[in-house]
Design brief:
Length: 150
Amino acid sequence: MLLFYSRIHMRSLLLLLIVLVGSAQAENSRNFGEYTVHFQAVPTTMLPPAVATAQGFVRAKNMYLLNVTVIKNNQSTGTPVTAKVSVQARDLIGKTTQIALKEVDQGDAIYYIGSFRVSNEDQWRFKLSVTPENSTSALEVSWEQKFDTL
């Protein structure tokens, strides 16, 4: 019973941390009318040690966490939806890095997270491909980000 409670607590803590980190930084989202895709890459050092361990992430200055959420836009609020999410990450010299994303579904929140390693002052180009459930069209999001590991 304690292990079950601990897992629920860790997931809730991870969700809370991702929301807080997202609101503390510039909002990264793209509105596609029916859907909005939210995305961010943050250092894993922002995760509490227990949450990082529970989710299988290494906390280090050169490790980052990619978080993607897909929201179906409603009249008053949005509803998180499951989606097929893939990401291409490429540095400025063209080296491609695979970032495996895992789905975390908490009922009232669904997000896709994965970690990756960077070097100081790396600048990466990301391209997300997101196909929401019950949709045949992929939503494409591209952005660049420079990483500081010092």
